[in-house]
């Protein structure tokens, strides 16, 4: 039986990369790009649906997050090379990618830069660019907007805040869960209550294990120009978005679709689904993203 969230530390290009694997270890390969602030841990929701479908899900910590070593000068575009290099180390040919929430921008960068071995991409409650469109920030979670602004304009304050929040979460996890629930829609509050709420904090605490710089870089890269050539994206990109999401509004999904070349983007609006309850739809998401063969 596969242990949920099997961990390993790999050497990729001379750099330590932490990876959690879910699903069928012999199955077709999909990379799950975690949200922000989050990491490889806490993604157990994908394990059973992946095993049922014969899919191997690999979730790496991004540079400077969790147990992965920093990538000097990390960029969004550079994520494509990082995933390609990781696939080489793991002996993977073709693969799909799922970008969840703050992992979405990195999945878009992979869609533009990974080449023909990438067969399909799914954006799961993904954020869109916020630097070049009026109203792009409308409807985003207050906590994310605060960290986004601090990461760009006051990184010293962002470091202090994230260190404090990590310590507070470790000492009083029930308070951290309560604060998170206050930002959620009822459907997500119910989801949080059903699934061991303290466990929801594990990924946050682990993401900040080496310090806050990796998470701050994630926010800064999201909030700055992405530097992605959208016109070269030819792989199918499926945009899944719930209409009861209090963290990422539906207009972000619509913006992502508008930016993609004609015929590439596929919109999947999920009624009554929130930012966390979308995890219960991951089987549908895997169905469109797993490569044929590989």
Give an account of the 3D structure.
- With 294 residues, the chain is an alpha/beta fold.
- The protein has one domain (6-289): 3-Layer(aba) Sandwich (Rossmann fold).
- 38% of the residues lie in helices and 18% in strands.
- The protein has helices at residues 47-52, 78-90, 104-113, 142-153, 155-171, 173-182, 186-194, 202-207, 213-223, 250-259, 282-289; strands spanning 6-12, 15-23, 28-33, 55-60, 95-100, 118-124, 237-242, 265-270.
- An eight-stranded mixed β-sheet has the order 1-2-4-3-5-6-7-8, with helices on both faces.
- Strand 7 (237-242), helix 10 (250-259) and strand 8 form a beta-alpha-beta unit.
- The radius of gyration is 17 Å and the shape is globular.
- 48% of the residues are buried.
Protein topology:
Layout: E1 6-12, E2 15-23, E3 28-33, H1 47-52, E4 55-60, H2 78-90, E5 95-100, H3 104-113, E6 118-124, H4 142-153, H5 155-171, H6 173-182, H7 186-194, H8 202-207, H9 213-223, E7 237-242, H10 250-259, E8 265-270, H11 282-289
Parallel strand pairs: 3-4, 3-5, 5-6, 6-7, 7-8
Antiparallel strand pairs: 1-2, 2-4
Keywords for this entry:
18% strand, 294 residues, Rossmann fold
